[in-house]
Amino acid sequence: MSNDVEIEKRRTFGIISHPDAGKTTLTEKLLLFGGAIQSAGAVKNNKIKKTATSDFMEIEKQRGISVATSVMAFQYSGKQINILDTPGHKDFAEDTYRTLTAVDSVILVIDCANGVEEQTKRLMEVCRMRKTPVIIFINKMDREGKDPFELLDELESSLDIKVRPLAWPIGMGDRFKGVYNIYDKNINLFAANKTKIATDIVSLSDINSSELDELVGEKPAAELREELEMIEGVYDAFDRDTYLSGDVAPVFFGSAVNNFGVKELLDTFVRISPSPRGRDTDTKRVEPSDKKFSGFVFKIHANLDPKHRDRIAFLRIVSGKFERNTFYNHVRLDKKFKFPNPTSFMAQDKSVIDEAFPGDVIGLYDTGNFKIGDTLNEGESFMFKGIPSFSPELFQELENLDPMKSKQLEKGVSQLMDEGVAQLFIQQPGNRKIIGTVGQLQFEVIAYRLEHEYGAKCRFVPKNYHKACWITTDNEDQLKDFMRAKSQYLAKDKDDNLVFLAETAFLLQMAEKDYPDLTFHTTSEFK
Ligand code: GDP
């Protein structure tokens, strides 16, 4: 098959949600439809459980599960669907943000009772930054939840995106009768545990016909008619281009655990979601149809066995064709590498592949050569842009407890940072190491791994920083003034960029006011 056909077939996306909204359940149902798994329960919830915070091995075991399910590929309706898993646990949010750089679209799961939750907001911010097309699935309609109109308003106001319902629920909780598909003008009557063959879907050429009353009852039918009229009045007609540009999110309703509304979601997804998209590099934009192979590393997973230091680097293919045992340029190191055992991931199976195409994600065994954000390609040299770092929320200074093991500590810290476990900021004088994370768990992970994998002992001293801000300016004099005044709050990140460690939101505001020509960024993606 030609590259173009392979590219057009692929749909690479991520499912995101606040923990417990139903991401794992929905993923599992999608895999069932795709025939990638045979029974429910096959997809392990890779949620890092709360009780696990004090038990590092338990976390590692759970992370092991998350490697196996990092990418789940299946065929559906002539398409190859690649689902990239995103950890729901807040402490692993960085990981999720980076995974979102490797997808072409997203399905966002919302719990109909909880509406927009904390993690939902943050994840959507990342999607908005990248203009990633989003489809919203409002889940758990078999339970009593918020009024659907209220939910839509909440989505628009707190996620700062326009929405467009493509389906509409008839009642909810005990009164849940089913979903009207606005796009296809049919009704899917609710029944628990729906199977693949949707026999309960009834076409309705006219929602004013009495058939609707017979199907769902007079009162619900009247309500549906009224609500549909309101929808058509309030929301613009669905337009695929505004979805693809990330401006409007189509909305579906269903109940993942009952397999209800999932097929409709999937059928619409394969029709409207984008095929693999290009990516920007430091010199040009690379399109999937470009002949030469290119890709970037967005995730690195360390071996769980401390005796083996090898890791798996996850590479998203952007253009051309990747082939096994072929030399490619590792652009940052300016060295050529070939890969005898590149792997693909199919639900819980891993297998060695000979070739892979744009949109695919493959695992490359690595002995420490890759960092997150690295480009692998053939032909001319360029680097993919846009694996952003986000300001951490917790900061602690790392102190070496065993001066005899300084070298091991340096090496360990550097490798853990390459893997993206946390961010390192170096402060002068004294080369002090400030580690920034989004969750407490990472500090435990770092201390444990430094000790068990590198034989180095450390201790963390909490620092009261509010945010790390990257600074840009055209006004060199003002920057110099700022650096003189704030020297004790300055640090350098891994790429030697200047960072302001602001102690409070107020002090950050003051800095913005006092140094108007400096711009303070809470993500590193501003170049
Ligand atoms: P995740 O944390 O987002 O991956 O959420 P899970 O898929 O693990 O689901 C969290 C809980 O919600 C589990 O107990 C599910 O069984 C339940 N759940 C998922 N979908 C539904 C649904 O449609 N209705 C109801 N009532 N419960 C659901």
Give your account of this protein's structure.
The protein has 527 residues and is α+β, with helices and mostly antiparallel strands. The strands form eight sheets. The protein has a seven-stranded mixed β-sheet, sandwiched between helices. Strands 18-17-23-14-15-22 form a six-stranded antiparallel β-sheet. Strand 25 (423-427) and strand 26 form a beta hairpin. Helix 7 packs across helix 8 (218-234) and helix 11 packs across helix 12 (440-454). The protein is globular and about 80 Å long. The two termini are 38 Å apart. Bound molecules: guanosine-5'-diphosphate. The site of guanosine-5'-diphosphate has 19 residues, from helix 2.
List the helices and strands and how they pair.
Layout (H helix, E strand, L loop, with lengths): L2 H7 E8 L5 H11 L22 H13 L2 E6 L2 E6 L8 H7 L5 E7 L6 H13 L3 E6 L8 H12 L2 E4 L1 E4 L7 E4 L4 E4 L11 E3 L6 H7 L1 H17 L5 H5 L3 E6 L8 H11 L6 E2 L4 E2 L7 E9 L8 E9 L2 E2 L4 E3 L4 E3 L5 E4 L2 E4 L2 E2 L4 E6 L8 E3 L16 E7 L5 H13 L4 E5 L4 E6 L2 H15 L3 E6 L3 E7 L2 H10 L4 E3 L5 E5 L2 H10 L3 E4 L6
Parallel strand pairs: 1-3, 1-4, 4-5, 5-11, 6-11
Antiparallel strand pairs: 2-3, 7-8, 8-9, 9-10, 12-13, 14-15, 14-23, 15-22, 16-21, 17-18, 17-23, 19-20, 24-26, 24-27, 25-26, 28-30, 28-31, 29-30
Bound molecules: guanosine-5'-diphosphate.
The site of guanosine-5'-diphosphate has 19 residues, from α2.
